[in-house]
């Protein structure tokens, strides 16, 4: 069994835990190569989160939780991917059920993460396969996920206002250079770090108050405040593109990845989500505080 | 905070020296020491010890008149004040105890002070009160105890002749001439069964109605245990009938089938008094003759009366001087025959245990059990002393038949030969009981704890129970909750299963399906009851059995829990000891041969020499000594430190302090070591502030060392601890997330700290004592290295030390590793500290002063490290097992699942992939059990990815900034959203077709939300009778249309013409609706 698959089995069995436990588990399955890990905890976390296996930093805490397993329909309506937790038994059940219903079953080896298990076939067949395996089928998963997203403005509204920590080092996110800089910028996202390594992220809210947010939301909140476009969409390639240093908030990224069942592809300081429907892209942009895509006007 | 004088190792060392300079004896000579606080005899006045020794230099009693003053065990100083006063009074009155030894055989008479007293009941118990009052009333007269048996029947035995002066005839005189009946039986039964004496003398018994019953009739009612006990009484040839093996004929005792229920073990009085009531009593006016029946040739059976209630009634009403509880006990324990038969009487274990008869019994665990045995002996001496006191000026004359020593092992064999219980088909212990039983077996018995190289202690306390449950099931319970759940589980099993079995308590001798003993949980509860002595204000501290009954949730009958046969209780202990020895080679701590009096009580007591009031103070001691929670520490070191800490502080009870100085000390040390191992680092200080300990964790990330504060998180602590400067989030149960130690934290680490946080839930603190050196070794719970006490031999560890100790530590590390050791040079290491990594101890020399924490643990150690562990359980995911680190000497022999396994570089080589199931690693006496499990998915417990009510199959509608009306195909489908500056996400309750924005002036926008907008519905109620929302729908379309809107596709890209055509249909429908509305009345 591959390490990534083992890790998902463990997550599924334990169901929830802390970030440190996750890191320990990752260390346990990492092959020891000169004590240098082959994949960082952040990388595997992003993969597991975007593929809708688990949710990390639940409600701003340091905890993670595993989702219930489901077959999630992709934007390509005749395909679905196994999301959520799983065990060897469930995996076998899905594969067998898929075969039984006449679906084509693809198991893709994803380096460093769990395998990608896809069922290709009519939506009805996929639905029956899910039923046969005892799990839920969610057609058009990205749409369903997008419908449950909380807009960034709402997140900011309910953010906790707090004073800036004293004697903590501070960095700001430069929205022009799209990177963190060691100085205090106006109307930006701020990273405060204690000498013990604790990190908090803030943005300026209404009235200048500092609002405590997670790192990704803080960046997009700052971008929203300054009307900076961070997300772009290529209608021809159906790709949603974001800066590498400004990844989408976790839930939004999950909805974006659910379009293709593949996590974002990194390259050229960008993260690219493929096979994203325009409607989904527009919805995700609005959710992230960006302006939606312009309609197609009739001449 | 710790005492200032012990803030560092140097001052600690000074404290040690100071302690050594102190006078050793801190027991006050001649003072009235609390007798109840000790169950040993350590605080018996030295002169009494010496007196006793003089009187019985070799276990013989030569002096006919003995005035002794001893103390009784199990007593609370306060509550026993009357007793103590009584002792003083009687001491002054100098009670006469006359003891004569009459040699009736060639062997010298041997009798110890343990034996020749009329043994008292347990003070505080009903029977003891009765006896005390009885004793107090005796101002004249004599109770003469003699053997009614034909004396020289068995060669090599001594006849014991008691003569107890008593002015007031004891109630046992009711027995009249029933000399063949045991004393207690006589006391209990003679008055109601006056004819039984003659019958028994003739070898017959009487049933409840007085019908004479022959010994052969009774024989069928005696179980195999009886034969077993006869087996070890004296040096007579063992005549035990085993199943399928006929009993050899022998002169004297009748052959008793071993497969028949025994009446031998009937209780005569309290567990203590039964010992004293073994002797048949020959009564004459003013004199009670008690004859010891514990001679094979003179065996007399203790028989119970059929109706215990009747017995109780008789004794309480007619025989006021006789302990009712004694009577009921006897009746309760054995419901079969009532009178004794000489042939059928079986010698009791007490006789076999009588110390003076065989003061140096061969014992397989002589070396380690010696203290326990000695403690029990002192216990017995104390009890004997009380007996003397209670006897007032009675004169006791005892003539003992010569007996040869009976080894303990023989007694145990006897018990082991006892038939397994005949349990009913429906007998099934509750799951909760079985869970606890299993957990305690694994944690307390099979796993070796410090100081348990050859003896195992069942040191059950709430904290140990909590740790036990967590270790086995990965669930962390508050100690109090653990104790409650455990008690409820055992109580349920006892009430619903055990009591319904014909053999009651002995039913627990039935092993489980996996051959594990099923009695452990119940025995553990008996220890817990002992642990709680001294703490219960309602019941007297000595009333052990009421506590036990309370825990069991049943009523008390005759001073004992209902159905609680003491001999069965003892049998279960011995059976467990035998099982443990067979399984692990270690023996269970048992009272030893000299327990005699109160020997049943001594079984649980010897496992918890420190009681609740002292155990609760141990966290303070652990903190004072800088002991890391959960550490395994050398018990002797703990004992020394505890004594230093306790001396002069007046924190431990007198009994607790005394136990550190007498023969109970090994048991105390083992108990403290186990408490430390189970300690989660929390305690409540005097201000009511809850405090938890902070560990230090070392981990390497990309070859660079990272040190962390790793606080414990007891269950009562908040999810987030924040004192303003330090914020810790809860991690796995029992811990906070580690927080990295900054370089500038060096001084704080050295001086220690107390971080406080208050909330509505109370005040909480995180605390770490001052430290100058830290041993960091692998742990099963964490990657990296956790601060613990000691360095395991042969396992890679690390050492963090203060700068000033660098050279000393370096030299020591070189001496233990045999290699060059240099501190790491890393900027992240706290200032003023040095980190030595890769320390693999190869030798175990004693550490220099101040570096005790670096002592090398040479004993075998098993550490399960890495792998994918399933929470806090000792269970790992199939396919991701732990690495099994083995610490200890090079010559260790290891086994895995019972098969020999190789150790390479400190790692156990496991053959092949591990199958799903339990696995056991055993190395040099150390044992670790773990499981590999198949992952299980409890999907109902998982968070759904998409809430169930979420509409699926559709994407939300995203609208540009502005105010919008979202319109569906039906005239009722309309919703308004906005205005918004950044776009809108809309999920209307109907399939949206259009999004219409109408400005305040000219112009409008119409967007097709779908790629293929359907035609409007022109039917239905909204269309036929347009009102309300239908009119709104129509108005929104109409208003947009008349403003010559701008059209567009929101997302899709359909036919422009079709879009316009379809829109016109909507407009036509809207217009028609408006007209229709105008026509309506």
Architecture overview:
The complex is a heterodimer of chains A (299) and B (1081). By secondary structure, chain A is α+β, with helices and mostly antiparallel strands. Helix content of chain A is 33%, strand content 25%. In chain A, β4 (70-73) and β5 (79-83) form a beta hairpin. The radius of gyration of chain A is 20 Å and the shape is globular. The model of chain A has no long low-confidence stretch (mean pLDDT 90). Chain B is an alpha+beta fold and 1081 residues long. Chain B is 31% helix and 18% strand. Chain B starts with 8 loop residues before the first helix and ends with a helix. The model of chain B is unreliable at 1-407 and 535-541 (pLDDT under 50). Chains A and B meet through α1, α2, α4, α6 and α10 of A and β18, β35, β41 and α31 of B.
Question: Could you report the average pLDDT of chain B, rounded to the nearest whole number?
Answer: 66
Number of strand segments of chain A = 19
Shape of chain B: elongated
End-to-end separation of chain A in angstroms reads: 58 Å
How far apart the termini of chain B lie comes to: 88 Å
Main sheet makeup of chain B: 11 strands, mixed
Strand content of chain A: 25-35%
Q: Count of helices of chain B?
A: 31
Largest sheet descriptor of chain A: 6 strands, antiparallel
List the uncertain runs of chain B: 1-407, 535-541
Alpha-carbon Rg of chain A, integer: 20 Å
Structure keywords:
heterodimer, A: 299 residues, alpha+beta, six-stranded antiparallel beta sheet, five-stranded mixed beta sheet, 19 strands, 25% strand, globular, B: 1081 residues, eleven-stranded mixed beta sheet, six-stranded mixed beta sheet, 41 strands, 31% helix, 18% strand, disordered N terminus
């Amino acid at each position: 069994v591959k390490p990534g698959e083992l890790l998902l089995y463990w997550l599924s069995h334990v169901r929830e835990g802390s970030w440190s436990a996750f890191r320990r588990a990752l260390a346990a399955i990492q092959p020891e190569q000169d004590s240098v890990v082959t994949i960082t905890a952040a990388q595997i976390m992003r993969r597991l989160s975007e593929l809708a296996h688990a949710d990390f930093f639940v409600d701003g805490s340091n905890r993670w939780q595993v989702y219930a397993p489901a077959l999630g329909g992709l934007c390509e309506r005749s395909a679905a991917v196994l999301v959520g937790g799983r065990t060897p038994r469930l995996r076998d059940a899905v594969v067998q059920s898929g075969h039984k219903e006449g679906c084509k079953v693809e198991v893709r080896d994803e380096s460093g993460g769990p395998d990608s298990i896809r069922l290709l076939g009519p939506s009805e067949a996929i639905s029956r396969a899910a039923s046969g395996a005892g799990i839920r089928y969610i057609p058009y998963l990205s749409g369903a996920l997008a419908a449950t997203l909380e807009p960034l403005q709402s997140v900011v509204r309910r953010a906790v206002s707090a004073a800036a920590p004293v004697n903590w080092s501070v960095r700001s996110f430069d929205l022009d250079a799209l990177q963190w800089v060691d100085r205090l910028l106006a109307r930006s996202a701020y990273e405060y770090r204690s000498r013990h390594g604790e990190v908090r992220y803030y943005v300026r809210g209404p009235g200048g108050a500092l609002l405590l947010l997670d790192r990704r939301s803080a960046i997009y909140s700052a971008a929203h405040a300054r009307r900076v476009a961070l997300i772009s969409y290529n209608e021809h390639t159906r790709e949603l593109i974001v800066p590498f240093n400004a990844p989408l908030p976790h839930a939004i990224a999950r909805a974006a990845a659910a379009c293709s069942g593949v996590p974002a592809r990194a390259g050229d300081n960008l993260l690219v989500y493929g096979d994203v429907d325009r409607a989904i892209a527009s919805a995700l942009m609005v959710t992230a505080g960006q302006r939606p895509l312009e309609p197609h006007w009739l001449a | 905070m710790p005492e200032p004088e012990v803030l560092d190792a140097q001052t600690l060392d000074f404290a040690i020296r100071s302690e050594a300079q102190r006078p050793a004896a801190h027991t006050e000579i001649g003072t009235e020491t609390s007798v109840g606080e000790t169950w040993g005899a350590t605080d018996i006045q030295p002169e009494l010890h010496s007196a006793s020794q003089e009187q019985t230099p070799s276990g013989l009693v030569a002096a006919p008149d003995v005035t002794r003053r001893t103390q009784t065990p199990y007593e609370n100083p306060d509550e026993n004040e009357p007793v103590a006063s009584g002792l003083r009074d009687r001491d002054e009155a100098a009670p006469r105890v006359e003891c004569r030894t009459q040699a009736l055989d060639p062997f010298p008479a041997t009798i110890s002070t343990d034996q020749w007293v009329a043994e008292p009941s347990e003070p505080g118990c009903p029977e003891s009160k009765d006896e005390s009052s009885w004793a107090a009333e005796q101002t004249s007269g004599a109770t003469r105890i003699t053997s009614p048996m034909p004396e020289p029947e068995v060669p090599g035995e001594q006849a014991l002749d008691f003569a107890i002066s008593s002015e007031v005839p004891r109630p046992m005189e009711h027995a009249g001439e029933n000399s063949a009946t045991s004393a207690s039986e006589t006391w209990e039964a003679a008055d109601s069964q006056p004819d039984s004496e003659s019958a028994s003398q003739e070898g017959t018994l009487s049933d409840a109605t007085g019908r004479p019953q022959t010994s052969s009739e009774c024989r069928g009612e005696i179980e195999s245990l009886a034969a077993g006990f006869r087996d070890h009484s004296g040096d007579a040839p063992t005549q035990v009938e085993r199943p399928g093996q006929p009993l050899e004929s022998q002169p004297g005792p009748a052959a008793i089938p071993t497969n028949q229920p025994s009446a031998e073990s009937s209780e005569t009085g309290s567990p203590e008094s039964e010992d004293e009531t073994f002797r048949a009593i020959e009564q004459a006016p003013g004199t009670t003759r008690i004859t010891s029946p514990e001679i094979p040739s003179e065996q007399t059976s203790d028989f119970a009366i059929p109706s215990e209630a009747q017995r109780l009634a008789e004794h309480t009403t007619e025989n006021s001087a006789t302990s009712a509880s004694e009577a009921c006990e006897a009746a309760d324990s054995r419901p079969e025959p009532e009178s004794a038969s000489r042939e059928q009487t079986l010698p009791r274990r007490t006789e076999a245990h009588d110390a003076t008869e065989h003061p140096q019994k061969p014992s397989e665990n002589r070396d380690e059990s010696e203290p326990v045995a000695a403690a029990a002996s002192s216990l017995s001496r104390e009890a004997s002393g009380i007996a003397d006191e209670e006897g007032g000026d009675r004169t006791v004359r005892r003539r003992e038949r010569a007996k040869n020593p009976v080894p303990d092992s023989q007694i145990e064999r006897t018990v082991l030969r006892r038939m397994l219980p005949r349990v009913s088909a429906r007998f099934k212990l509750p799951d909760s009981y079985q869970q606890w039983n299993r957990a305690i077996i694994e944690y307390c018995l099979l796993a070796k704890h410090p100081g348990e190289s050859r003896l195992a202690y069942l040191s059950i306390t709430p904290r140990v129970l909590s740790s036990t449950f967590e270790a086995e099931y990965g669930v962390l319970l508050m100690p109090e909750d653990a104790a409650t759940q455990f008690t409820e589980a055992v109580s349920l099993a006892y009430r619903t299963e055990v009591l319904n079995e014909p053999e009651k308590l002995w039913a627990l001798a039935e092993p489980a399906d996996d051959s594990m003993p099923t009695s452990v949980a119940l025995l553990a509860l008996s220890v817990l009851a002992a642990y709680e002595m001294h703490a219960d204000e309602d019941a007297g501290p000595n009333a052990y059995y009421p506590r036990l009954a309370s825990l069991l949730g049943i009523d008390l009958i005759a001073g004992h829990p209902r159905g609680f046969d003491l001999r069965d209780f003892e049998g279960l202990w011995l059976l467990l000891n035998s099982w443990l020895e067979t399984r692990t080679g270690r023996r269970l701590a048992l009272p030893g041969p000299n327990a005699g009096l109160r020997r049943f009580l001594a079984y649980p007591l010897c496992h918890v020499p420190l009681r609740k009031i002292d155990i609760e103070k141990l966290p303070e001691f652990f903190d004072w000594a800088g002991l890391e929670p959960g550490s395994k520490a050398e018990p002797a070191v703990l004992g020394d430190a505890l004594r230093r800490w306790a001396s002069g502080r007046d924190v431990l009870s007198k009994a607790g302090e005394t136990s550190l100085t007498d023969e109970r000390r090994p048991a105390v040390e083992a108990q403290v070591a186990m408490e430390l191992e189970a300690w989660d680092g929390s305690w409540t200080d005097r201000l009511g502030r809850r405090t938890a300990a902070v560990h230090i964790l070392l981990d390497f990330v990309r070859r660079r060392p990272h040190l962390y504060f790793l606080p414990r998180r007891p269950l009562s602590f908040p999810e987030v601890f924040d004192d303003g400067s330090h914020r810790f989030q809860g991690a796995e149960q029992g811990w906070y997330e580690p927080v990295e130690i900054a370089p500038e934290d060096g001084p704080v680490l050295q001086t220690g700290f107390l971080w406080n946080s208050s909330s509505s839930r109370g005040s909480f603190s995180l605390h770490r004592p001052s430290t100058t050196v830290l041993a960091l070794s692998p742990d099963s719970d964490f990657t990296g290295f956790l601060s613990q006490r000691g360095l395991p031999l042969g396992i890679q560890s690390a050492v963090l030390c203060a700068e000033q100790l660098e050279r000393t530590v370096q030299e020591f590390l070189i001496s233990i590793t045999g290699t060059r050791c240099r501190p790491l040079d890393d900027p992240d290491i706290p200032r003023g500290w040095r980190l030595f990594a890769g320390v693999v101890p190869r030798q175990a020399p004693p550490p220099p002063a101040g570096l005790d924490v670096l002592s090398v643990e040479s004993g075998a150690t098993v550490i399960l490290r890495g792998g994918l562990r399933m929470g806090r359980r000792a269970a790992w995911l199939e396919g991701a097992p732990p690495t099994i680190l083995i610490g200890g000497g090079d010559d260790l022999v290891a086994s895995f699942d019972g098969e020999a396994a190789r150790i390479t570089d400190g790692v156990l080589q496991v053959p092949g992939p591990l199958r799903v199931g339990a696995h056991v690693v055993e190395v040099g006496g150390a044992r670790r059990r773990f499981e590999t499990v198949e992952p299980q998915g409890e999907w109902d417990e998982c968070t759904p990815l998409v809430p169930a009510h979420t509409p699926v199959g559709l994407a939300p509608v995203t609208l540009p900034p502005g105010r919008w009306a979202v319109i569906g195909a039906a005239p009722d489908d309309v919703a308004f959203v906005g205005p918004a500056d950044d776009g809108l996400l809309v999920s209307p309750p109907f399939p949206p077709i259009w999004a219409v924005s109408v400005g305040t002036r000219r112009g409008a926008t119409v967007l097709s939300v779908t790629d293929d907008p359907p035609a409007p519905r022109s039917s239905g109620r909204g269309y036929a009778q347009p009102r309300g929302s239908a009119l709104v729908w129509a108005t929104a379309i109409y208003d947009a249309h008349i403003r010559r809107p701008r059209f567009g596709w929101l997302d899709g890209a359909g036919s422009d013409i079709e879009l316009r055509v379809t829109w016109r249909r909507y407009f036509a429908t809207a217009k028609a609706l408006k007209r229709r509305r105008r026509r309506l009345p």
